[in-house]
Amino acid sequence: MIKISNLEKIYRTEDVETVALNKLSFEVKDGEFVAVMGPSGCGKSTLLNILGLLDDPDSGSFLFNGIEVAGFNERKRADLRKRNIGFVFQSFNLIDELTVFENVELPLIYTGVKAAERKKIVEDVLDKMVIMHRRNHYPQQLSGGQQQRVAVARAVVNNPKLILADEPTGNLDSSNGNEVMQLLTDLNEQGTTIVMVTHSEHDARYSHRIIRMLDGQTVMQDLMV
Amino acid sequence: MFKNYFTIALRNIKRHRSHSVINIAGLAIALAATIVIFLVLQHEYSYDTYHKNADRIYQVIKKDVSPTETGFQVGVPFPATRALRQDFPQVTFGELYKSFGSQLTVMKDPNTISSRRFIEESGVFFADPEIFSIFDVKWMAGSAAVLKEPGKLVLAKSIAEKYFGTWQSAMDGYLKIDNNILVQVAGIIEDVPSNSDFPFAVIPSYKTFESNQQYFNYGEQINDWGLSTSDHQVYALLPENMKAASIDANLETFSRKYYRMESATKTSHFLQPLKNIHFDTRLENNGDHISNKTSLNTLALIGVLIVLMACINFINLSTALAAKRGKEVGIRKVMGSSKTQLRTQVLFETGLIVLFAGMTAVLLAWLALPYLRYIADIQQQLTLINTGSILFLVITLVVTTILAGFYPSLILSSFQPVEAIKNKINNTRVGGLSLRRVLVVLQFAFSQLLIIATIIAVGQMNFIRTADIGFDKEAVLLLQGNNDSTSLARQAAFKSDLLKLPAVKSVSFTMDPPSSLNSWTTNFAFNNNTEDLPFSLYLKTGDEHYAGTFGMNLLAGRFYTTADSARKVVINETLMQKVGIKEPSEAIGKTIRIGAGKFREIVGVVRDFKNNSLRDGIQPTAIISYPAFYSLTAIKLKSNNLGKSGEAIQQVWDKHYPEYAAETRFLDESINEFYQQEERLSRLYKVYATLAIIISCLGLYGLVSFMAVQKNKEVGIRKVLGASVGSIVYLFSKEFTVLILIAFALAAPAGWYLMNNWLQNFTYRIDIGAWVFILAVLASVIIAWLTVGYKAISAATANPVKSLKSE
C-alpha cells in the first residue's frame, strides 16, 4: 500500500532550517494497522501529512499502491486523496456550519456521488457508527466522543483503502477513546489499512506494528503480538 | 454540490450576521444609487430615439461669426425655409413657430363667448405638415395633411381631454389663440413620449401663423434675412445614404447667396443631428432641459466609484473573515475539494449576498425614485423596471460578484490545508494589510472629494442666493398678460385701478424683469457714429416706472419720463465703460443708435444689475421704452406678504381683462428658478457625499473588525502586561488617522482642481478657502473615529485570557 524511501522534508524560515524528515524509509502493507510514535517534534505529523497527500516531500520516493506520488501537483494529490484516503483528527475537524449528516456527506460530494445514493450511504454509515439519531445536529451540540464518531464516519464514508488517524483519542476520555479505537480496529479487520499517530502506548497496542521516530528518522519497529 | 454551497452560504450569512448586514447594506446602498444613476442616464440618452428616422433627422442651426465672438442659434430667418426647399430639393424640410405662454380659449362653436381659458407655457407649435413627415407621431384622428390649411389645429390626446372632456368631442371644436386667432380642431395625436424635446401638444398649422402675422409683432421685417428668432425653427430629413457633411458644404454656398456678406458678422448654417439636440449646451431646445454630457459622465463615474467602494468593503470584510474560515477550507481540501471548487463556493456565496443586496437595492431605488426630481433635471417619474434596467441590474450583479468575490476566493482557496486545519492561518497570510490599506485610502479619498465638492457647491449656491443683484427683487409681483392691441389699450385703466389698492406701491409695464433668462440683443452705434460697435447690446424694455418698481440705482442723470420715453435711453455701468466713458455724468447727453433705428439720447446711467443668471457676467445693457412689447405687469407691493391683496389684484385683472387668464408669480421666485440646475446639483452632491461617507464608514468598520481579529493576541498580551483601554483604542485609531490623512493628500488637490473648474461656470463665485479642506478632513477624521471607536473599545475591553487561550 505504502512504500517510502529516503523521504526528506525540510522547513526553512529566514535563518533556521528544520529537518522534519531525514531520509525516512518504511513500508505499510495492505490491511496493516500501524502506529507511529515519538516525542513532539520528531516529524510524526509531517509524515502523516505526506502520507495523506496533504504535503509534498522535498526528496525521496513515495509509492502509493505502486504509483510514485512524490511530485504530484495539488490537483492530482487532491484527486487521489479524495478517492483513497480517510482522515481522523485529534480535534475532529468537523465543519461547524454543517450538520452531522452534511459533514459526513461532504467527501461523497467531492467524489461526485449522486444525491440519492449519497443519502443512502451516509445513513448506512451513521447507523453503523450509532450516531444516526444525531444526524441533524451541529457539531457543537455533540459530546467529544460523538464528534469523533462522526469524524470516523466521515473518514470511512468513501470506503477508503487507507485511514490516517492523528491522535484520534487525544481529546477524549478513556471510555470514549476506547470506543473509537474499537471502531478503528473493526475497520481494520474489515480490510482497511490504518496508519495512526499517537502518544498513547495504550492506543498503540491496538495496532499490529509500532514505528518509533526520533528526529525525523525511524529508530525502532516493534511488532505487536 | 450547489445545494451544499447554498446551505453553507446561508448559514455563513446567518452566523456572521453583523458582517452580512454590513456587506448587504453597503452593497444595497451602492447598487440602489447606481440603479438610479442608470435610470437617469438611460432616460437622458433616450431622448427622441424613438423616431424611426432618428439618424436622418437634423436641425438647421444658424452660426454667427463676428470678430469678437461666435454665436449659435436655433432660430432661422423666416424666408430661409422656402430658399432651403428650393436649393435642396432632395431634402425634406419642415418648419415650426413656437409660442410661449399662449392663452387658449376653448369654444364649442365660434360665436359664443367662453370662459374656459388655459395658458400653455410650452407645447404650442405652429407647424407645417412636413414636420410630421420628419418626426413620428401617432394619429388618432385626422392626418398631417390637415395642417396644409390655415385655421386648422391638431391636439395631443391629453390636452384634447383637458379642454373638451373627451378627445372625440374635441374634433371640430374651436380654440381662440390669445383672444385673436380662431382655429378649428382637425386632428388628434397620441401624447408625445416624455423623453422628447418636441413636446407637441397644441399644433396650429404654420399657415395659421403666416396668415395672422400682425399679431406676432414682426411687421415687415418678417421677410428680412437679418431677423431671426429662436421660435422659428427648421428641421430636415435627409434621404437615405446622404451625408450631412455634403449638405453642410452646400449650406456655405447657400449662406453666401442669401446673407449680406458685407456686414462684420458672417452668418452661415449647418445641420445639427437630432441626437445632439438634447445635449448641445450652446443652444436651446424645445424640451424642459438640456443635459450636459460632462455632468452625465461625472454621474456615471460616481455610480461606478460607489459600487467599487462597496466592493472594496466586501473584499475587506471577506478577507478579514477568511482567517476564521481557515479550518473549514482546510477540511474541505482534506476531503478532496479542488481549488476551483472552493473558488466557486466563495463566488457563489458572494453572489448570494450580492443578490440579496440587489433585491434590497431595487426596493431602495423604488423608494428613492419619487425624490429624483429634487436632484436631477428629470421632472417625470421614471419606471424602475424596463428591459434596459433589468439587463443593467443583472450585468451589475454579475460584475459586482466577480469584483467583490474574486480576490477573497483566491485568498481562501490558496490556504495550505495542513496549516488551515490547524488554525495556523493568521492574517498576515490573508494577503497582508497593505492591499486593504490601499483600498481604504482610495475609499476615503473619494468620499473626501465628494465632501469637498459638496461644501463648495453649497457655498456657491448660498453666495448666489444672497448676492447683490443690483436691484430689489423683493415684493415684486409679476402678472403675465398679452401684448395684443386690445390688451395694450386697456393698460392705462388697469394700472390706475391697481394703484388704488392700498398694498400696491408702484406699477410698471415691461417685457422682462431686469434679471431673466431671455436675452434680446442687437447691433448698435454710439455717439452719432455710423459704424456699429463690434459687440452686441443687450436690451431691456420698460415704461418710465421700470427703475422705480425694480428698485434700480441711478448713478447719474434720471430715468426717462412719459413725455420723452420714445427718444431717451438709460444705460448700465458696463455699457458706459465699454464705450470708454469713466464718469457716469460724462455719459449723459451722449447718443446711441439701437439696431437700424434713430439715435436716442442717454439720460441716465444705472448701477450694474445682473441681467442673466450669475453664471454669466453683466452685459452692456440699455433700457428703452417699447410699449408694443409690454405683456408683463410688474407690481411693487408695500410688503412681502401678499395676503388678501392677491385677491384684490386678481379682481382688478378680471375687471379689465375678463377674457384673459392671469398668471402671477413673485420675482424672487422666478430668479431662484435660474439656479434650479445648480440647486439640484448641490443636492445631488449632498446625497452622494452622504452615501459615500456611509459606505466608506462601513468599510472602515470592516477593516477595524479585521484588525481586531488580527491584533487579538497582541491586544491580549498588551493587556496582560498592563495596557489601558485608552492606549489600545489609540493603537487602532492611530493607523486610520494616518490613512485618512493620506487619502486627504489625494482628495484635496483633485477636489480643488475639479471644483475650481466648476466655479468657472459662474462669473460671480466664491473663493475656495483653506477652511473648506480643513472642514473636509476634520469631518472625515471625526466620522472615522466614531466608526473605529466602537470596535476598538470592544477589542480593548475583551477578556485577554480568551484571546490568548486560542493559541
Automatic annotation (TrEMBL), chain A:
PROSITE patterns, A to Z: ABC_TRANSPORTER_1 (PS00211), ABC_TRANSPORTER_2 (PS50893)
The family database entries (SMART domains) matched by this protein are listed as: AAA (SM00382)
Q: Which InterPro entries match?
A: AAA+_ATPase, ABC_transporter-like_ATP-bd, ABC_transporter-like_CS, ABC_transpr_LolD-like, MacB-like_ATP-bd, P-loop_NTPase
Superkingdom classification of source: Bacteria
In terms of Pfam families, this protein maps to: ABC_tran
- Any GO molecular function: ATP binding
The ABC transporter domain sits at 2-223
**Which keywords does this Swiss-Prot/TrEMBL entry list?**
ATP-binding, Nucleotide-binding, Transport
Q: What is this protein called?
A: Phosphonate ABC transporter ATP-binding protein
- Native organism is Flavihumibacter stibioxidans
From TrEMBL, chain B:
Q: Which organism is it from?
A: Flavihumibacter stibioxidans
Residue stretches making up the MacB-like periplasmic core domain: 20-251, 471-640
Membrane topology recorded in Swiss-Prot or TrEMBL = Multi-pass membrane protein
Broad class of the protein's primary localization: membrane
What protein name does the entry list?
Answer: ABC transporter permease
Residues of the ABC3 transporter permease C-terminal domain:
301-417, 688-800
Question: Does Membrane appear among the keywords?
Answer: yes
**Can you tell which superkingdom this protein's organism belongs to?**
Bacteria
- Residues spanning the membrane: 21-41, 299-323, 344-369, 389-415, 435-458, 687-709, 721-748, 768-788
**Record's keyword terms, sorted:** Cell membrane, Membrane, Transmembrane, Transmembrane helix
Record PANTHER family: ABC-TYPE MACROLIDE FAMILY EXPORT SYSTEM PERMEASE COMPONENT 2, MEMBRANE COMPONENT OF TRANSPORTER-RELATED
The listed locations are: Cell membrane
